[in-house]
Records
---
Amino acid sequence: MALSSLAIAITLAIFSTAGGSPVSGDSFTINLLHRDSIDSPFYDGSMSFSQRLGHALRRSFTNAKRFKSHQKGSTYQADIIPDHGEFLLNVSYGKPSHKVLAIADTGSDLSWMQCKPCTKCYKHKGSLFNPKSSSTYQPVDCNSTTCKAISIDEKPCSSLKTCQFYESYADGSFSNGTVATETITLGDRVLTNIVFGCSFSNDGVFQPTWAGIVGLGGGDYSLVSQLRSFVPGKFSYCLIPFPVTNELSHKSSKMTFGDINFGPNAVSTPLVPVDPITYYYVTLEGISVGNKRLNISDHSNSSKPLEKGNMIVDSGTTLTMLPEKLYNKFETALKDAINVRTMKDPQKVLSLCYRATKVTSVPKVTIHFDGADVELRRENLFVTVSKHIVCLAFAPTSNLPVMGNLAQINFLVGFDLDNKMLSFKRTDCEKM
Ligand SMILES: *[C@@H]1O[C@H](CO)[C@@H](O)[C@H](O)[C@H]1NC(C)=O
Ligand SMILES: *[C@@H]1O[C@H](CO)[C@@H](O)[C@H](O)[C@H]1NC(C)=O
Ligand SMILES: *[C@@H]1O[C@H](CO)[C@@H](O)[C@H](O)[C@H]1NC(C)=O
Ligand SMILES: *[C@@H]1O[C@H](CO)[C@@H](O)[C@H](O)[C@H]1NC(C)=O
Ligand SMILES: *[C@@H]1O[C@H](CO)[C@@H](O)[C@H](O)[C@H]1NC(C)=O
């Protein structure tokens, strides 16, 4: 026994000192597929690149509305729009395992998928999961603490003997069914007793391709939180640039659950516990364009402390949304620094655009989080909206500010749930 654990320790030590891959210790990695990639079943060949991008950009605005804050005490009745999340992942449920393509959602907790017998389901690719044919499927007891945390029923045992979940969305659509535990397979890991929702009824405007949602939020019943029984409470991702070409890509974005070795040159900022704990909140202090620093507070009252947890970091939103005042100052400063003729966004979504060839140099732009300065590159700031035009991939919002996925491209972004820290490290994600 002692000998074998020593062997394991030595093996781990060898792995963690091996160079190259930042994956270390106890962790596993999966691929993330952008929904607009040609490999994705969402891919619509009839749309041009700019149309696809236009859709993704517009989704940012509908997404931003959902971050208004949930009603207190109803975390699982989240006010979320179902057509969200920009990345897909493979996950297998049950024994024998049933593989589904699900939306990876850092903005929700409970994972769910459509199950048999479905009284009302939308069409999705592949067959429906049949809980009866899985030997590891186990409904959650209505008297359990798990059920009390998830069910919106005051007395979950009153109607049915099994625990029921109900998720409703801002547009009136909903998903409901049974809370159960199942063995799931993610990458090369088999994970037992994972709480999820087996949905027997869905209504509304669900996207007809994905079979369900994998919740990667910060709440107790998100997949990441539950994975703590298997790997340390951390996950990270490395996002490759927005899919531009119509060629099959052999590169994909990556997500790692568990330990990751950031090495030198990483910066970290505290994750702030704000209700609902589903979202990953950080504290935005300001943004610099060159040496010009723009602070979030207006300094009319310097004794007023900066609000902690004033921004969320989300992989499912494409644009970065800044508070209106800060956005306006930022756009002006950037425009002054670039100092070439601006253009109109052909799709009328974004506000600061240029002819791509005219933007020969982009000033240094730094996002100042509490304790972490994140330096953005051209690819994080500007998005190619048509053949010749690039636009600033930022927008103003009166809702909760969001750091979107374009600003996170080619960073290793690590969420440490145990130590409540978020880290960034500049990385070539295509080489990971
Ligand atoms: C999901 O699995 C299918 C079939 O094995 C594979 O072709 C596809 O590349 C996988 N997608 C991701 C995102 O891992
Ligand atoms: C749930 O607990 C209550 C009180 O302990 C008990 O009366 C009831 O029979 C239990 N219900 C089920 C379905 O186990
Ligand atoms: C789901 O909701 C529908 C409509 O409100 C209801 O008829 C059905 O009984 C619910 N199903 C479950 C399993 O809760
Ligand atoms: C912005 O905030 C930083 C840190 O709090 C401070 O050092 C700096 O003086 C402020 N700059 C301006 C222009 O207000
Ligand atoms: C400035 O903020 C402090 C703390 O919030 C508050 O007590 C004070 O009244 C404010 N002063 C002014 C002039 O608004």
---
Amino acid sequence: MRFEELPTPCYVVDENLLEKNLKILNGVMERTGAKIILAQKAFSMYTMYPLIGRYLSGTAASGLYEAKLGYEEMGKENHVFAPAYREDEIDEIISYCDHIIFNSFSQVEKFRDKVLKAGKKIGLRINPECSTQVGHDIYNPCAVGSRFGVTIEHFRPEQLEGISGFHFHTLCQQNSDDLAKTLDAVEEKFGPYLSKMEWINFGGGHHITREDYDIALLEECIKRMQDKYGLHVYLEPGEAVALNAGYLVTTVLDTLKNGMDIAILDTSASCHMPDVLEMPYRPPLIDSGEPGEKPYTYRLGGQTCLSGDTIGDYSFDQPLEGGERLVFGDMAIYTMVKNTTFNGMPLPTIAVQDKNGDCRVVHQFNYQDFKMRLA
Ligand SMILES: *Cc1c(COP(=O)(O)O)cnc(C)c1O
């Protein structure tokens, strides 16, 4: 099917663009010997896992379901971190995962024997208390009162038995200069214990596939941990894997005026691109400009009853008309994993555009997907 023939709303993941990212990540792996795994939280479109698995070392999970998905659909190295594990899930989680990363010494105590008996590795998430991001505390695991990671104040050097690696995750959409700063803090606080470990996991938030990312400095950071402490290095980016690798295709349903021009689309910021409201950010829209840049400016909004369900103000060369299609960019990450059917909104179709530009629908949703989650 051609791109123009896809039903809307529809997420389309572009194999070429995804593979371009994977090649960049694989280059880092080849040159440094570090292992990079996909953080499924950002992108769990398992149709693409065979392709991703050709370039990356495996998957990272945040709990039982993601762990099971990575195990079933990629079947490579599988790591899990959760702020706390449930007793009724831990056995199954251990069966799917190679690294089980704990958030506290009490969790290590509780589950250490089970993990070691299964021949799996125990990691501890540390909190270097080094905030390198300004503004949004919702994405800052080093904010005051954060529930993530053991701080040096609560570190128990006498209880490291069975722990083979440290994990930290403090970045969000950041460059490698912030990673270097974070490593300084990790060394300053936890340096004496690093050489007792086998591996270190730098977490996610590395925007490695972004144009201005300094890959050379990332590789220096990796080598520093390898050479100085003899550590195996893991990274678990989510965003960087599928950054700019997908679209959301939508149709204009109507246009109206209220002090400005408004267009109603068959998609929803709240249901289909919640990061637009949460982050917040303005998604790229193909063939559009900033408000006022082109002659016709519209506020684009969704079909729900939420007043704030607007995607943003965009300008166009021609007035928008009902039936016209608009294509948003960067709609692979943190989109389908966060979908809701709030207000009875349908879930967008999921499709793939292959290397020749041919499109195929992978999954279409319907009324049952709304109903079955209610009772
Ligand atoms: C969210 C998260 C990631 C992935 O982060 P990105 O910003 O998508 O790269 C990796 N590891 C952990 C523990 C996370 O919470």
